[in-house]
């Protein structure tokens, strides 16, 4: 009797710079590492052990928003040419062969789903819609609030459409979608520029608003085999207990590149190299949060 070889199982990771493993060397447009092996999808797959997948395909892209995940040519004020990885003007185009399906990350994902034995899909997406349109454009006050409110609707609408398209291709594939921790909590630290201290409440509220929009997008999706991964809670975003630093600020300092240490070994704002992305400990925390959500999902079946 000939034993049939099983098709390799694939874990497909989608989203922005967080699953891509991006690291910024200095603030602004320069990325020292657009794609890093240190990322939560790789760690998550390792945590799964014997339940892990034979291959991780990570299509995530730095600066990706819900807008250019749907259309790689859709620009914004900070990236007028659209996605860095997909569309007609992509300086960081994927090296994986996608048979021409590179008009958007969603289009590339649909190609993978049609041609590979995908057993799990994760998504971290939505914060860049608000960051690139409202934060990095320097808006403040009522103009910022109006911009953020508009982007919440954009994220909810786009994410629902993205999830509907992905889940319709194979309803058996579990889809895990995360919200975001709040890196802006570091703006309360000593050494933070005054204008960042002053705008912190608006940014913190906008981060929470984005997370509500993501949750609404997931809840309104037609797909049923999916779950929200709560990074907001995993990073203690609303825990203000503790001294000398509140728990939520300390967690951001320990798990991202937003903070530094002064000569007394006390946490301060990480000027000039503050970076919202997770460090190694942060990627592990994110991966463990995905693992728990996946484990709960499998037990509930």
- CATH architecture annotation name: 3-Layer(aba) Sandwich
Task: Indicate the percent of residues in helices.
Answer: 40-55%
> What coarse outline follows from CA principal-axis ratios?
globular
**What structural class results from the helix and strand content?**
alpha/beta
Strand content: 5-15%
Number of domains: 1
Write down the CATH topology.
Answer: Rossmann fold
Could you name the CATH homologous superfamily?
SGNH hydrolase
Low-confidence stretches: 1-5
Sequence of secondary-structure elements: EHEEHEHHEHHEHEHHEEEEH
**Secondary structure tally: strands:** 11
Please report the number of helical segments: 10
Biggest beta sheet attributes: 5 strands, parallel
CATH class: Alpha Beta
- Rg from alpha-carbon coordinates: 19 Å
N-to-C CA distance: 34 Å
Strand order of the largest sheet: 4-1-5-6-7
Describe the structure.
It is a single chain. By secondary structure, this protein is α/β, with parallel strands linked by helices. The chain has a single domain (9-235, 280-299), classed as Rossmann fold, CATH 3.40.50. Helices cover 42% and strands 15% of the residues. The chain has 10 helices and 11 strands. The chain has helices at 17-20, 40-47, 66-70, 105-115, 127-135, 141-169, 194-220, 231-234, 247-255, 280-299; strands at residues 9-15, 23-24, 31-33, 55-58, 117-124, 175-178, 226-229, 256-257, 259-261, 267-269, 275-278. The protein has a 5-stranded parallel β-sheet with strand order 4-1-5-6-7, with helices on both faces. It has a two-stranded antiparallel ribbon with strand order 2-3. Strand 6, helix 7 and strand 7 form a beta-alpha-beta unit. Helix 2 (40-47) packs across helix 10 and helix 6 packs parallel to helix 7. The longest helix is centred in the middle third of the chain and has 29 residues, at 141-169. The model is unreliable at 1-5 (pLDDT under 50).
